[in-house]
UniProtKB/TrEMBL annotation:
Similarity field: Belongs to the FliM family.
Any GO BP: bacterial-type flagellum-dependent swarming motility
CDD domains found in the cross-reference section: FliM
Domain of life: Bacteria
Domain Flagellar motor switch protein FliN-like C-terminal: 255-324
Species per Swiss-Prot/TrEMBL record: Caldibacillus thermoamylovorans
Protein name: Flagellar motor switch protein FliM
SUPFAM superfamilies referenced in this protein's UniProt entry, alphabetically: CheC-like (SSF103039), Surface presentation of antigens (SPOA) (SSF101801)
UniProt keywords, alphabetically: Bacterial flagellum, Cell membrane, Cell projection, Chemotaxis, Cilium, Flagellar rotation, Flagellum, Membrane
A cellular component term, taken from the record's GO annotations: plasma membrane
Keyword Calcium: no
Length: 333
């Protein structure tokens, strides 16, 4: 057993039982401990991101999944659900082997960051969305090698607008400006990094109606390298602490104080029939539901906030505040 390895309670019980029955010799265990242990390391699968950084990337794309769910649901007018299924770091070559030979691929630049990221959309999902855009029920037919120019254009427009959500999802870490660079169907033609380069692959499980599939976002190490320090818990904690600084709260209050609100002095209300309305002519009077000696209601953003009396200031109509209305008081008038 390698030093530092943590055993479960059941493994500890089994080991003690084996020692007590003589199946395992304590001297043999001690001798094994003293022997030099060599752990194999695959340089092709170099782990360049910590678990903490992978969790931060997962958190960012959880936010992206919620944004995509809202966007696609509104755009396609049907049930759509997107959620993060997994986040792994693997060699780029392994990622290419894991996706279909013919699929929907979009290559994005994300300035000011260097490098490019790749978004792979399973054909089942892509065609279901295309069918829905064209007025269908959202059924999927995989004919990726027979895409027409019109279908390609419609599909590209749909996903180009959708993945503008990347900007908002990444805003908590850094500002990016996603720009669609190219569209491809064969991953073998997209050698954006060397085969052994470490990439982070975020897999989004996507459901549209009765069709499901994966959207994979492949992010090379070169893209994340300038912001790697921002993917730590300490950065997130510092960000939250900075947001709570009194100076920023005071600045927010100053901006709120200068926000303009619509204010309406309502003299009263009345109900008339459609026939009476159609017969109204110049000089007709409409009786309101408020007496002339009653205070009028001042509404802010459409909600009753004050009672006031009408008057004049410098030959202009004005109202004088009499009292503030508490929530629910307007129903008693």
């Amino acid at each position: 057993m390698p030093s530092g390895e943590i055993l479960s309670q059941s493994e500890i019980d089994a080991l003690l039982s084996a020692l007590s029955t003589g199946e395992v010799n304590a001297e043999e265990i001690k001798k094994e401990e003293e022997e030099k242990k060599i752990r194999t390391y695959d340089f092709k699968r170099a782990l360049r991101f910590s678990k903490e950084q992978i969790r931060s990337l997962t958190r960012i794309h959880d936010n992206l999944a919620r944004l995509l769910t809202t966007h696609f649901s509104a755009k396609l007018r049907t049930y759509v659900h997107v959620e993060v299924a997994s986040a792994d770091q693997i060699p780029y070559e392994e990622f290419v082997r894991s996706i279909p030979k013919m699929t929907v691929l979009y290559l994005y630049e994300v300035p000011p960051l260097e490098g490019r990221l790749l978004i792979e959309i399973n054909p089942n999902i892509a065609y279901a969305m295309l069918d829905r855009i064209l007025g269908g029920m959202g059924t999927s037919i995989n004919k990726i090698d027979q895409l027409t120019d019109i279908e390609t254009k419609i599909m590209t427009n749909l996903f180009e607008v959708a993945f503008e959500q990347l900007q908002e999802a990444w805003e908590t870490v850094t500002h990016i400006n996603p720009v669609l660079q190219s569209f491809e169907v064969n991953p073998q033609f997209l050698q954006m990094v060397s085969p052994n380069e470490t990439v982070v692959v975020i897999s989004l499980n996507t459901v549209i109606g009765e069709t499901s599939g994966m959207i994979n976002i492949c992010i090379p190490h070169i893209v994340l390298e300038p912001i790697i320090s921002k993917l730590s818990v300490s950065y997130w904690m510092q960000t939250e602490k900075k947001q709570a600084e009194p100076e920023k709260l005071l600045a927010l209050k100053r901006h709120l104080k200068h926000t303009q609100l619509p204010v309406i002095a309502e003299l009263g209300q009345s109900e008339i029939t459609i026939e009476e309305f159609l017969n109204l002519t110049e000089g007709d009077c409409i009786e309101l539901n408020r007496k002339i000696d009653q205070p009028i209601i001042i509404k802010v953003e459409g909600k009753p906030k004050f009672l006031a009396q009408p008057g004049k200031i410098n030959n202009k109509l004005a109202v004088q505040i009499l009292e503030e209305l508490k929530e629910g008081d307007e129903n008693d008038e």
